[in-house]
Amino acid sequence: MTEADENSAQLWETFRGGEARALAALFEMYYDALYHYGLKLTGDEELVKDCIQNLFQKLWRRREGLRAVQVVKAYLFKALRRHLGDETKLLQHRHLLPNYTDSFEVTYSHEEFLIAQQGDAEQSARLLAALNQLSKRQREALYLKFFDGFSYERIAEVMSLNTQSVRNLIFNALKTLRKVLVAALALLFLLAN
Amino acid sequence: MDMNGAASDYPPRRANAAQSRPPVRYLLMKYAVYSTEDFLADESFQSFVVGTDPAAVQFWQTWIAQHPAKETEFNDAVAVLELLATRQPLPLPEALKQIEAAKLWHSMHPPVAPRAQPALRVGRRARRWASAAGAAVVLGCAGLGLWQRAAAPTTAAAWTSYATHSGEHRQVTLPDGSRVTLNANSVLKLATAWQPGQAREVWLTGEAFFNVQHTAPAQLKAVTAAPANVKFTVHAGPLDVAVLGTQFDVLNRPGRTNVILKSGQVQLRHQLAGRTEELLMKPGELVEYRPAEAQAPLAKRPVNAELYAAWTTGHLDFDNTPVSEIITLLEDTYGLRISVRDPALRQQKLTGSVPNHDVDALLNAFGKSLDVSVHREGNRVRLD
């Protein structure tokens, strides 16, 4: 557990005791991360803002029935994910969209990676192509791993999977990426010499 | 002992997870047979490449120095993970976060019972409202908590009213977190308790600036398409001003009712003798209704909406503002009729700030900065 995790676990306890400021502090602490994750999942800014707002308002109303939480960030991510899922389902139902799928579509873009900033356009394009070949779940697990620094155990919590499945998802994802990228790296290396 | 100090410190132990981990020696041997993929999927290796964990960085640097045979796999794994290095996302606009944090805060803190004040121009019906507010105050003072509950009359709804004296402004936070600034000599009434999912309604006499919370689902942006239960309605004399979440000014004084929209959308409804007229307003528009011309259709005209909200700060701020705009503002706000002897005066521009609680002081300052004399008789003003 990191220091931030310990801090927020304490804030969580204070909040459960009825202190509004503690919940406001957690909101402040995790708003950005939640927002980016929600946006990644749905691409809908307004929906994400609403869901985060509803999530925290609900936490406040139901504070007395909440339990202690080990890693607050993971708890919040999981709750937001569920909220977004419910909302999306509702919207799709309302618009009679036939093919509802319950996994979110995570897509990556160039500007999210350092490599693009370093001006290596070709490698950056290859990375994106490789990432977008991965399964939806693999992409989401990678996001939680590399953008939010969650451990396998916490990713499992957020995505409602078991830890071994997450480990396999990421292992296979990285294996695929490596095949695509290291082949390219080797080629570059040959060309450079 | 073939391990050095740094290596044996790793992995950094968690108090309760330590026992469940394999001994360090086993881990080190395991690493010696790692393939590139094994390195890739190893969480401590990932934190080493990403640089998030100094202990991991130190451990792996030491480890590879001691195991040169694994360099190929090691470096391949580093190369892949380095490609995945992410950029820090841009921080969200501070305003977005502030608005959201305020919304949350308001939802956690329903407004405190209001101070009852003698209202001006309050009729018999209103007096009943005022006494309900009085009851709420007593509850609040009795230390029953900051949480304002409906004063619990089970039969009739309890009402709260907020009123201001002349020269007084007042900030009010409504049960949904919407904020209202009441101008002088104004009364705002509403049901004390608002049930979530019910239409929000307030009644205004005088002038108020509204900053209304959007409670409808985010997808819902058009007020005309919204169901009643997510709308916020200001009843101002004969006009109903319905919104979803916007900023606007409503002035409902004897002789006229104005609505000025600063942002968002407003749906105006005017009921007269069984006939209903509807109008949709866009930001920067003013609609004026005069009972004297009750049969005339509602008409919109563009104004500097920023200026119409300026009174909320207690002063009017002009920034290269044309005198013609200021004159219109004074006419609209104070019900004056202003005539100007020299038409060229209207083209001049003013910059500066004047307190606005006293019309005469304001007119004086206005005249001084334009270097004209001000003559006022009732609501007629002449600038010579």
Overall description:
- The complex is a heterodimer of chains A (193) and B (384).
- Chain A contains nine helices and no strands.
- Chain A is mostly helical.
- The longest helix of chain A is centred in the last third of the chain and has 30 residues, at 163-192.
- Chain A is globular and about 60 Å long.
- The termini of chain A are far apart.
- The mean pLDDT of chain A is 84.
- With 384 residues, chain B is of the alpha+beta class.
- Chain B contains eleven helices and 18 strands.
- In chain B, strands 1, 2, 3, 4, 5, 6, 7, 8, 9, 10, 11, 12 and 13 form a 13-stranded mixed beta sheet that branches.
- Chain B is elongated, with a radius of gyration of 33 Å.
- The A-B interface holds A 1, 20, 23-24, 27-28, 31-32, 35-36, 44, 46-47, 49-50, 52-53, 56-57, 60, 91, 111-115, 117, 123, 127, 142, 145-147, 149, 151-152, 167, 170-171, 174-175, 177-178, 181-182, 185 and B 14, 36-37, 40-41, 43, 46-47, 50, 52, 76-77, 79-81, 83-87, 89, 91-92, 96-97, 100-101, 103-105, 107-109, 217-219.
How would you summarize this macromolecular structure in one to three sentences?
Chain A is an all-alpha fold and 193 residues long.
CA distance, first residue to last residue of chain B = 101 Å
Classify the beta-strand content of chain A into a percent band. under 5%
CATH topology of the largest domain in chain A: Rna Polymerase Sigma Factor, Chain: A
Count every helix of chain B, treating DSSP H or I runs of 4 or more residues as helices.
11
Mean pLDDT over the full residue set of chain B: 75
Task: Pick out the low-confidence regions of chain B.
Answer: 1-23, 112-156
Largest sheet of chain A: none
